[in-house]
Amino acid sequence: MNSSELFDAAKEAMRHAYAPYSQFPVGAALITDTGKLFSGCNIENASYPEGWCAETTALAHMVMAGESKIAAVAVVAEKMALITPCGGCRQRLKEFGAPDTLVHLCDENGVVETVTLGDLLPKGFAFPGDKG
Ligand code: THU
After folding, report:
1. Taking the model in full, what pTM does it have?
2. What is the CB < 6 Å shell around ligand 1?
């Protein structure tokens, strides 16, 4: 799967965003090392801190399908020329990715910039002895 197909999946996921409080719809899609695609949207809550990000929804789908290794990610937001995953999602993605995992940062028309998870989260938390 190429980055443009991953973008398409993220944009489609964004249509499902539940963001009545921020009015800031986000979509994310990821492809696993086994070639499976998962996507997600942000899901907010009247109790604001209880909402969560699009990346987190996509990761939940991946884990529930029994998968655990991310090969690449795409993120898109309706109202931003280029969105980068929040700090918490960087750490969540790190759990299932690697420093060289590609993260495609998109606007509504496609991929704007491609970076790695290592670029986004240098020195992320890991237990002693864990790699990455
Ligand atoms: N959001 C995401 O879904 N992913 C990110 O990486 C950044 C922020 C969502 C959370 C919240 O629903 C809205 O964007 C505004 O912060």
Report:
1. 0.96
2. 19, 22, 24, 26, 42, 44, 51, 53-55, 85-86, 89
Looking at domain 3-120, its CATH superfamily turns out to be Cytidine Deaminase, domain 2 (3.40.140.10)
Nearest to 12 by CA among 31, 25, 22, 24: 25
Judging by beta carbons within 10 Å of its beta carbon (0-12, 13-18, 19+), is residue 51 exposed, middle or buried?
A: middle
Which protein residue has the closest C-alpha to ligand 1 atom 3? 53
| Mutation choice for ligand 1 from 23, 42, 121, CB with most ligand atoms inside 8 A | 42
Work out the percent of the chain whose per-residue pLDDT is above 70: 98
